[in-house]
Every structure is written in structure tokens, then in C-alpha cells.
Amino acid sequence: MFVASDGSSLWIYVHAPSSASGPSLSLVSKARLPATHTPLVLDNGSVHCRLKSGAMDVMVLETHRALQAEAATSKGMQQKK
């Protein structure tokens, strides 16, 4: 998975290096990028951005929200054991 930005949107793609029809690249989703955000790093579905003020912010991609919520729930259950 990788993300491209045009300054106002994030374009989320998935790369399949091998499939029945050969390598492929597919657009998965598009997300609005706030004007105050400059994307720096994509990590496990989270886009780390620099704000115009110099502060940092993290945006979780819609494609990964359910996965991250599930991971947080699983982690919480493991800690209770």
C-alpha cells in the first residue's frame, strides 16, 4: 500500500506484485487532506503530517480504521489477562 498526495487529497493505492494477470496497481480510496497538513510518512495506515504551525498530527486512513480499532481491542484484551 502507498499514498500519493496532490496537496489537497491523499490517493491510496495498493500494489500487487503478482496476480493472475500480472503486477497491478489499484486505487483503493481518496481522502481529503486539510490545507494545514503536509504528509510526511505513512506507517501502518497512519499518515503522519506536519502542520503549518510546525506541530505534528496523525491521520488514520479510512482503509485502516477498522483494522486499527480491532488491534487496539485485541491489545486491551491481552493486557487484561
Describe this structure in words.
- It is a single chain.
- This protein has 81 residues and is α+β, with helices and mostly antiparallel strands.
- The chain has one domain (2-80).
- The protein is 23% helix and 48% strand.
- It is built from 1 helix and 6 strands.
- It has one helix at residues 62-80, and strands at residues 2-5, 9-16, 24-32, 37-43, 46-51, 56-60.
- Strands 1-2-3 form a 3-stranded antiparallel sheet, with no helix packed on it. Strands 4-5-6 form a 3-stranded antiparallel sheet.
- The protein starts with a strand and ends with a helix.
- The mean pLDDT is 85.
State the main characteristics.
alpha+beta, 81 residues, single chain, 1 helix, three-stranded antiparallel sheet
Please outline what is shown here.
By secondary structure, the chain is an alpha+beta fold. It is 23% helix and 48% strand. The chain is built from 1 helix and 6 strands.
Tell me the layout of helices and strands:
Elements: E1 2-5, E2 9-16, E3 24-32, E4 37-43, E5 46-51, E6 56-60, H1 62-80
